Amino acid sequence: xxEGMENVVQLKPEPTLRVVERGEGPLRDWTDExxxxxxxxxxxxxxxxxxxxxxxGVLNYTYRMVQNRHIAEELTQEVFLALVKNGARYQPTAKFxxxxxxxxxxxxxxxxxxxxxxxxxxxxxxxxxxxDDESFNPLDHVGDEKxxxxxxxxxxxxxEAVNEALRHLxxxxxxxxxxxxxxxxxxxxxxxxxxxxxxxxxxxxxRAERALRPYLEKYRExx
Length: 223
Fold this sequence. Notes:
Blueprint lengths: L31 H9 L3 H23 L2 H18 L9 H20 L8 H4 L17 H22 L4 H12 L4 H8 L3 H19 L7
Helix pairs in contact: 1-2, 2-3, 2-4, 2-7, 3-4, 4-8, 6-9, 7-9, 8-9
């Protein structure tokens, strides 16, 4: 370092608080952020609305990441337990879904670390034969109505194809792809969740779609 120059420490900017107005009317009509703030004040009802609103999405996400229903349910419980623990400290510095899936991503990462290996996939067709099939379907969030229509009579075949295709993605691409295409988070939200630049997020999704395309060519109109 040249003589006379001072060390410069790069500091991350302080997060900006989002302006969140207190909800009006029934709690079910409140925003997520307003509900979480109300939960932080001790409202169990506000917490219940949040759980009802997001439990299925988080369970879908954790299941796709670990491919084990029992473990996914346990991880989902951990996510919502974290909301309880952090309720009083919550500050709306980002969208609630960003906050929620940051917690979920961290918990999934810890699960992967515990396994010391990449998560294995198993056949979804046998799982879909369970009695509660309609209450939890990974294709529900595909975002394409044609996929849901076709799934009514060809669900097993498509699910096996998707499952097999996801097997070929590296973890970082799979998580980015699932957060975007299945959980419908924006590029900016995923960037905050994974602490990766938006450009990298877009690149990962493009690469994931390119890698998945050969495996899902038969179903390109539906998924």
